[in-house]
């Protein structure tokens, strides 16, 4: 419906432009030759120009130029313009011959040299002047119609370029959305896998904390299945998810609570952020800090959200003295979040990773 309305609007604008051009052309000829000749000359000239414009715009360019038949297009366009120019001159001569004969003085076009015209009339050598004028008129018509044809080519190619650019933009947006959905689908099962492992451990030792863990898992699943289907979520929901994630690990062992420090400073809880953006970093910290070592393992998490829509996130963890065997799936979450940052916050984030012998630190700044 919108496309049909847009087409109608385009036709209206084209009609108004043609009408304005017709009036200007009529004004040009009417001042020199009067109403009758000016009207007929303007209508005939503009009609031929519109014909050239439409044929080139709707047939020659799409069928030849856009099909990359450049040589054939150039030859066809030149032959078409040349043919139309001579047809126009012939029709004009036939239609206005009687009128020109009775108004020989006024039939001279404004491009004639006044002195040449006066001398020709005095010498009664009208045929010689008319012969010279016919050559000039033919050349003038070819040039004029060529300009119209080239203008329609430029106009059609501009529309074609804008259409291709718009299609490319839409395609890029669709690709980004598809890739974002794919990356999030990779993140969610990985989180779920770790949480289920924790539940299994608690159920295996018959811990009384199992119902609490199941309830927290229910909240996490609700967030992952429903809230993360949108492009962004309020940051307070993301923080609730992170708190649940950390609490699940704390329930595993009371002895590691002292080794985990968290700081949540949120001045604008309604600020929109991409879902599951910080979770892989915290997951990575729990996986590689060896937090179960109550004497040496530690994790620090900090998240600041300012009223000026700036987010600062930092997570640091210890590194075990003895290198652990690396989980082959351990790098999935970290690499995915890097890709998501580049897709959704390309020029609006700064990610810094500091890897030392004793610690691993991630610092992330986002300007939304």
Mind sketching the topology for me?
Elements: H1 2-65, H2 70-102, H3 114-122, H4 126-204, H5 210-225, E1 233-234, H6 235-252, E2 260-266, E3 272-273, H7 279-288, E4 299-305, E5 310-318, H8 332-344, E6 349-355, E7 359-367
Parallel strand pairs: 2-4
Antiparallel strand pairs: 1-3, 4-5, 5-7, 6-7
3D structure, described in words:
The chain has 368 residues and is an alpha+beta fold. The protein folds into two domains: 2-169, no CATH class; 207-367, Histidine kinase-like ATPase, C-terminal domain (Heat Shock Protein 90, 2-Layer Sandwich). The protein has eight helices and seven strands; from the N terminus they run H-H-H-H-H-E-H-E-E-H-E-E-H-E-E. It has helices at residues 2-65, 70-102, 114-122, 126-204, 210-225, 235-252, 279-288, 332-344, and strands at residues 233-234, 260-266, 272-273, 299-305, 310-318, 349-355, 359-367. The strands form two sheets. Strands 2-4-5-7-6 form a five-stranded mixed β-sheet, with helices on one face. A two-stranded antiparallel sheet has the order 1-3. Strand 6 and strand 7 (359-367) form a beta hairpin. The radius of gyration is 39 Å and the shape is rod-shaped. The relative contact order is 0.06.
